[in-house]
Amino acid sequence: MKRIFDAQLLGPAIALIVIATLVALTTDRFLNPGNLSNLSLQVSIVALIAIGSTIVIITAGIDLSAGSMVALLTMILAEMLKFMGLPLPVAILLVLGCGLALGLTNGVLTAYLRIPSFITTLAGLIAFRGLALLFNNGSPIFSLDPNLEPLFYGSLLGIPLPFYYLVFFYGLAAVVMNYSKLGREIYAIGGNPSAAALSGINVRRVQTYAFAIAGFMTAIGAVLMSARLNSGSPNYGQTLELQAIAAAVVGGASLAGGRGNVLATLIGSLTIVVVQNALNLNAVPTSVQNIVLGMIILAAVGVDMWRNELSSKIGALFSLSHTRQRGA
Question: E strands, the chain, where?
Fold first, then answer.
């Protein structure tokens, strides 16, 4: 039972099933095919960005800049497509490179200048949004490219393309985190950076890599955001960083570092989006939705803080019960 309680996927999966069941029983339109299709598309952007957030959290860091980075990158993409006339593949590659560079900047400031990641990415949250406002006098840019929307709304074999993006990137992240040297080093640094350094791991370099991955995944999310709306705007991505962090924490990632599972983060992303979808279907104001999101993060962090103690108590309870049964 203790092993079951500690399972990284079981807890988030049970939470998702319970929440989805409650929503389905209380909201008539939730199981509508159109709503479920919209739900599957909506989760893709949050889930992809949450991959990077999870990896940073496992290193005992935090990335608060993802939402503002999305806004900046959508404006860069819009500028290149609408006013510079660059081909779509070239513009996308350049945006992915920009996301990687911004992530590297966060990583270098955090790892090599030893500025806490909270401060580094908080500065990025403000600065990236400000940079986005410099484009087109701060106004959104619409109707970018007719070939952009199919990247989000297109399908292959009757399955929406975002499903394939999730399978590819989550499969790749799971392999890297569980079977590669880099993945082992990321977990080691989050668990005990001093011990990791003594074992020969270049802690600063690996921390920088983690933020670079987060920047790249945010760029993927930004491209999909632009494809979804065929536009770029300095207002896009608001609270997106909190949704990604919440998805990681609900999925079992520990803000203390050293613990997390990208596949569980996918379940956490679904949970967050299901809750938001239920609130939207019931016409709950955005202000209240933000309060609910904050409460979800608070509850998830509380579970993380008490997980070990609860696990030990449950294990001791079942051990005592087993001992009494044997004595009887």
Answer: 141-142, 155-156, 159-160, 231-232
